[in-house]
């Protein structure tokens, strides 16, 4: 809603350059309440969508699907570099294409940020791969590294985690292209003949540092701030609770990749209960996860000296096996020989660059790259450097899932190689096919949940009942299912009683159904939970004013008008509520005959009014106040302003018609009265004013 429907940066009247100064939600990036989510290229794509098809969701979804298809193709192409042509590349591509964890990123429009970042992530990586293969043999090699840097910058401008591709490129260069071990890295980089490698890694480091520095400066050198419900662990006073929970969350994310059985549109609040003690059994999952991760990384970095495997063929001590295929020594690329005659390239006259095309990395190399691709892009979401505004977000796993798919593929390949019997090999292939089919079916089912808001929120009740019931209440209310909506709001408050938004929404529902005393009760609870909730003050003041409690209403409106917009998640909505409070306070003064006070308040409202606020009623009341004070030129000016801002505003037609009649311009006045009747023939007030005009 805030990213598209109410985002002023998508509108044609807003200068497109604002996109580069505002965050993803249209708030000034340096504002204290900004999420600091700087994704201008994603917002620009939304603006293009809006320019072409307005608010028709079809076009937005089409772009997301096309982007996902493109990313899948690029990922499959990158897998060919690791696995060569054949089944393994196809398996990696199918796993990525069918994985259910991608549903939120593709089916949810705002998930486009992750898809776009992944697109340029892969483009940057592919450019760097090309740089590695041409380094030392072609002048164009530095053009490829320039392309890698530019694509990395674009990836970051789609979403922050895109900058991590530079680290992945360095891992590829060191562990895949050069096949170095940990203890070899520093000695190799120090050798003069490896100057180009050192230069490439240096350029990646410098460019990454520059991008992060500019990014930090552009957002005001301040981290974002989030509410307790967004990330409860970050708000915990206990260091033990924060530590145990933050260490556990990556384990939970990996489980979602492994077994995406339970998915949800929202994992905030209490969706993942905090780990408050060492005795919590979930700590066993944490220990198992990190132990397995470290063990896998250690084995891959150390390598195996006795038995190695090359694209599905076992190699003993660097010699070929019974199938006649071989891999070279540890400091060379392992080679997949297409024919046994390729064993000796000198004998067959094969040139070096032709053999290069046949060289494929070892299993250990692919595991290192896969782990890096799984872990490094996920680091920004770990709360390691700064707190994030979510507990778990499935869309954030879009880029890391590439590492997961590679890891699963290389694991399947290893099982296939180890299997000695044809039956076991077939079993591995059948199990893999079943996994891809199950992932695909789950994706189809999950897409069904994303067909409409009601189905989506109902699907999330078992994971995050408070948030799901609250959002479901909004949907049911929009469908005029009032009793069901009220029940949904009360269910949400049963699970989390201090949710200011839900208390406010329930109060609004009760107010719209003339249950004013109950509405006041919930508005006061909402204000108690969030003292800066201006909309609750606004509606409280309106109810009090209608009940004749003018002094209480005046105090409520005044208190609302004094609330600053610092550290608020949606400063635009806050400013709109404050402007409405001042408008109603001015009306209160107007009805009491204090026209000077009313004008003062109206002028303050105009000063605080945000761009998206509809000002026609405010301008019309300004004209009314001036007219009551017999300052007719000023009154006419504001009536004209009111009609200019909204040409079909009926009250302004009537009040301006009265002014024109009063100043003797009866023919003009009649036009405005007739126009008001034409705009709403059912409105008796229009006929009354026109009748009075005719009598006079």
Tally of DSSP helical segments:
30
Strand content: under 5%
Q: Strand order across the biggest sheet?
A: 1-2
Radius of gyration: 32 Å
Low-confidence stretches: 304-310, 312-358
Q: Which overall shape is indicated by the principal axes computed on the Cα atoms?
A: elongated
Number of strand segments: 4
What's the end-to-end separation, in Å?
50 Å
Mean pLDDT: 86
How much helix is in the residues?
55-70%
Q: Describe the main β-sheet briefly.
A: 2 strands, antiparallel
* Helix-strand category: mainly alpha
Give your account of this protein's structure.
By secondary structure, this protein is mostly helical. Among the domains are: 56-243 and 361-448, no CATH class; 635-695, Serine Threonine Protein Phosphatase 5, Tetratricopeptide repeat (Alpha Horseshoe). It has helices spanning 40-53, 57-83, 87-98, 103-107, 112-134, 141-158, 165-177, 185-190, 195-218, 239-258, 282-302, 345-348, 352-356, 363-375, 400-418, 422-449, 453-459, 465-478, 482-495, 500-512, 516-529, 534-546, 550-561, 571-591, 595-608, 616-628, 632-645, 650-662, 666-679, 684-695; strands spanning 307-309, 314-316, 334-335, 359-360. β1 (307-309) and β2 form a beta hairpin. Mean pLDDT is 86; it is low at 304-310 and 312-358.
């Amino acid at each position: 809603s805030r990213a598209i429907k109410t985002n002023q940066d998508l509108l044609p009247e807003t200068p497109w350059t604002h996109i580069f100064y505002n965050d993803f939600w249209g708030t000034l990036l340096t504002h204290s309440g900004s999420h600091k989510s700087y994704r201008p290229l994603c917002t620009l794509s939304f603006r293009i969508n809006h320019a072409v098809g307005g608010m028709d969701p079809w076009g937005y979804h089409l772009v997301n699907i096309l982007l996902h298809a493109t990313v899948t193709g690029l990922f499959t192409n990158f897998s060919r570099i690791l696995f060569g042509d054949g089944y393994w590349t196809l398996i990696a591509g199918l796993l990525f294409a069918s994985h259910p964890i991608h549903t939120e990123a593709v089916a949810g429009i705002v998930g486009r940020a992750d898809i776009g970042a992944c697109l340029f992530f892969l483009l940057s990586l592919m450019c760097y791969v090309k740089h590695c293969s041409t380094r030392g043999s072609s002048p164009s090699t530095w053009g490829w590294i320039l392309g890698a840097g530019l694509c990395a910058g674009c990836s970051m401008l789609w979403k922050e985690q895109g900058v991590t591709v530079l680290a992945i490129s360095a891992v590829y260069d060191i562990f895949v292209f050069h096949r170095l071990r940990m203890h070899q890295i520093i000695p190799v980089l120090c050798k003069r003949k490896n100057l180009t490698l050192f230069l490439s890694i240096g350029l990646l480091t410098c460019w990454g540092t520059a991008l992060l520095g500019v990014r930090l400066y552009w957002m005001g050198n301040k981290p974002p701030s989030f509410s307790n419900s967004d990330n409860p662990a970050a708000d915990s006073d206990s260091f033990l609770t924060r530590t145990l929970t933050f260490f556990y969350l990556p384990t939970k994310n990996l489980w979602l990749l492994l077994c995406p059985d339970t998915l949800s549109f929202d994992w905030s609040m209490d969706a993942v209960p905090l780990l408050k003690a060492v005795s919590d059994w979930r700590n066993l999952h944490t220990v198992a996860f990190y132990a397995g991760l470290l063990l896998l990384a250690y084995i891959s970095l150390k390598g195996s000296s006795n038995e190695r495997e090359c694209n599905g063929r076992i190699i003993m001590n660097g010699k070929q096996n019974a199938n006649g295929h071989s891999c070279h020594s540890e400091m060379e690329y392992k080679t997949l020989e297409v024919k046994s005659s390729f064993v000796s390239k000198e004998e067959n006259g094969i040139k070096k660059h032709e053999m290069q095309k046949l060289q494929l990395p070892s299993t250990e190399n692919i595991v290192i790259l896969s782990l890096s691709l799984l872990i490094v892009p996920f680091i920004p979401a770990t709360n390691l450097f700064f707190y994030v505004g979510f507990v778990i977000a499935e869309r954030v796993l879009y880029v890391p899932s590439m590492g997961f798919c590679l890891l699963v593929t290389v694991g399947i390949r290893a099982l296939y190689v180890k299997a000695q019997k044809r039956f076991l090999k077939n079993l591995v292939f059948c199990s893999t096919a079943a996994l891809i089919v199950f992932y695909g079916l789950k994706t189809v089912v999950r897409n069904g949940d994303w067909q409409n808001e009601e189905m989506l929120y109902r699907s999330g009740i078992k994971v995050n009942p408070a948030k799901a019931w609250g959002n479901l209440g909004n949907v049911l209310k929009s469908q005029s299912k009032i009793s069901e909506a009220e029940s949904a709001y009360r269910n949400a408050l049963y699970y989390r009683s201090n949710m200011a938004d839900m208390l406010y929404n329930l109060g609004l529902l009760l107010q719209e159904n003339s249950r004013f005393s109950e509405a006041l009760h919930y508005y006061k609870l909402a204000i108690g939970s969030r003292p800066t909730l201006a909309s609750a003050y606004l509606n409280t003041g309106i109810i009090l004013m209608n009940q004749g409690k003018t002094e209480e209403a005046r105090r409520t409106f005044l208190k609302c008008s004094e609330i600053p917009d610092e550290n608020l998640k949606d400063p635009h909505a806050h400013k709109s509520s404050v402007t409405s409070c001042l408008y109603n306070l001015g009306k209160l003064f107007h009805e009491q005959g204090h026209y000077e006070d009313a004008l003062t308040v109206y002028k303050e409202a105009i000063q605080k009014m945000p761009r998206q606020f509809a000002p026609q009623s405010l301008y019309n009341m300004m004209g009314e106040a001036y007219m009551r004070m017999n300052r007719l030129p000023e009154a006419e000016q504001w009536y004209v302003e009111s009609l200019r801002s909204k040409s079909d505003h009926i009250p302004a037609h009537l009040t301006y018609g009265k002014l024109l009649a009063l100043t003797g311009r009866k023919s003009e006045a009649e036009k405005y009265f007739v126009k008001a009747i034409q705009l709403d023939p059912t409105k008796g007030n229009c006929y009354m004013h026109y009748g009075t005009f005719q009598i006079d």
